[in-house]
Structure formats: C-alpha cells, structure tokens
Amino acid sequence: MTNFAYANLAYCYFSLNRLQDVKATIAAHARELESPQLHTLLYSLAFLEDDAAGMAQQVAWSADKTGVEDTLLYFEADTAAYFGHLGKARQFSRRAVDSAERGDEKETAAGYEAEAALREALFGNLAEARERAAAALRLSKGRDVRYATALALAIAGDSRQAQTIADDLNADFAEATTVQFNYLPTIRALLLLNRNKVPEAVEVLQKSAPYELGTPGVAAFSPNLYPVYVRGQAYLVGHQGTEAAAEFQKILDHRGVVLNQPTGALAHLQIGRADAMAGDTAKARAAYHDFVTLWKDADPDIPVLKQAKAEYAKLQ
C-alpha cells in the first residue's frame, strides 16, 4: 500500500471514532506515512485527545516548510476558534493564507479565507464574514471556495449573492455528486430559512441524507456535516426542538468526522436551545453548561457567546 492508502485507512478509522485503530495504523506504517499526511493525522489525533502539546509539536514541525506549514496553521486556526479564541484564530488564518500564497497556492489560500468567512458568520460577526468572503473570491472561484463563501454569505444575510453563487455552481457542476447532493441543498436550505420557509428547507435537505455523513471538500476547507447542522437550524426555526436536538447530536456523535470545525463546538449550544424549546430544562442547562465550559476562556465579545450566556442565565 502507498502512503496515501494508509492515510485513507487512518481517516476511515477517524470517521468511525476508532482512535485506537488510528494509532495502530500510524504505529505500524509510520515509515510509509512519513510525509505531511503523517503530521496532519497526528495533529487530528492530538486534537481529539485534548493533547495541546501534541498539536503544538506538529505545528512546530511544519514551520517554514512550503506547502505544509499553511495546512497546520489552518488546523490551528480551527482549533483556536473551536475554543472561542477568535482573535488567535484570525491570526492563524492570516498566517495560513500568507504561507499558501508564498507557495503559489492561490486556491488553497482562498479556501482558508473562505473557511474564515464561514467561521465569522457562524459566530455572528456578519460584516467580517462578508469581508472575508470577498477576499476569498478575489483569490479564486474554485468549487469549494464558492461553496464556503455562499454558506457564509447566506448566514450573513446576503441572500442575493449567495443565490448567484449557487446558480453558478449548479451550472458549472451539473453532474458532480458532491455539489448536487451536498453543497447545493445546504445553500438552498439556508436561503429558504432566510425567507422563513422551514418545511421547504427541510425538504430540500432530504437530497443530502444519503451523503451527508461523508467528508466532501479538500484540506483547505473540509465542510463536514453541514447539511446536518443546517437541518438542525431549520428545526429550531420551526420550533421543533426534539428533532433539532437529534440533528445536532449527530455532530457530537461524529467527532472523528467533524474534528475541530466550529460546528463541533456550536452543536452543544444548539442542543441547549433545542432542549429548552422542547421543554426539557435540565437537559438544556447541561448542554449550555457544556458550551460555556468549552468556551470558558473565549474572547468575550463574540456575538454568539453573548447570546448563549444570556439564554443560559434565563434557565437558572
């Protein structure tokens, strides 16, 4: 087997939350895996095991390595954001973009900008989200870049531009499974939610159901389980708390797929909202507690954190 095959095997084990098998694969095939892939695997493993030193070791290894450093900096950005350290996440994202551009990897750099735009949108910084989306599209209009920026813009309320991007994706990738069965239903569902069309949003996401637990995208942007997250949001908008909680729970149940994406942290908050809506105050308090504990050292001015604390206080 090639190093790519062993890496794919390890990532399959990640997807199944079988971390001991990830470790065994790395230990048995470290020589074959001795490549940038090995270090991204080790970083992801360290994240899931709450091993800050292990993550830092992989980032340090990547320093000044063209075509590698940017990936580990991007991982660091997501990890910082996962714990609510948005200022640090922005710094790491800028460094990742700069590193990718020095390596003449404009598409990759655009992916980092697009991911940063989506992060800002999810955290409630809508003006910053639009700025980062514009920066991404100036660098590249690749498939995954357009998807991330469309999500960010839809969440930020710029439905017109998000719709234009969705239409272009549909025209350019009419037979691409990932676009037609994952990306477009997710964008369209968000656009429908912006118009408060909840049943239609849930319906359009049915197209994603057979594929949504997979891992679309590339290293510069890995948008895993976004159809699930958006479906959960749709149920929240429709005041269907029990159904919403079940969707967000899928994200927590698939940590090896979601890894350090911001939705992995936000799912705790969304479950709290869903449980409160369903009338289960005890479970809601527990979920809110999980979120505010995860973000105990978070930057205090993040809009979604302010909202979460206000909502949690009302449950006390």
Can you describe this structure?
The protein has 316 residues and is an all-alpha fold. The chain has a domain at 224-316: Serine Threonine Protein Phosphatase 5, Tetratricopeptide repeat (Alpha Horseshoe). It has helices spanning 3-15, 19-28, 30-33, 36-48, 52-62, 69-82, 86-102, 106-123, 126-139, 143-155, 159-172, 177-194, 198-204, 226-237, 241-253, 255-258, 262-277, 281-294, 303-315. Helix 8 (106-123) packs antiparallel against helix 9 and helix 15 packs antiparallel against helix 17. The longest helix is centred in the middle third of the chain and has 18 residues, at 106-123. It is globular, with a radius of gyration of 19 Å. The mean pLDDT is 94.
Low-confidence stretches: none
- What's the CATH H-level superfamily name of the domain at 224-316? Tetratricopeptide repeat domain
Percentage of residues in DSSP E strands: under 5%
Straight-line N-to-C gap? 56 Å
- CATH T-level fold name of the domain at 224-316: Serine Threonine Protein Phosphatase 5, Tetratricopeptide repeat
Largest sheet: none
The CATH level-2 architecture of the domain at 224-316 is identified as: Alpha Horseshoe
The helicity comes to over 70%
SSE succession: HHHHHHHHHHHHHHHHHHH
Q: What sort of overall outline do the alpha carbons produce when their principal axes are compared? A: globular
Cα-based radius of gyration, to the nearest Å: 19 Å
Which structural category do the helix and sheet elements fall into?
A: mainly alpha
Mean pLDDT: 94
Q: What's the total number of strands?
A: 0
CATH class identity of the domain at 224-316:
Mainly Alpha
- Annotation field: number of helices: 19
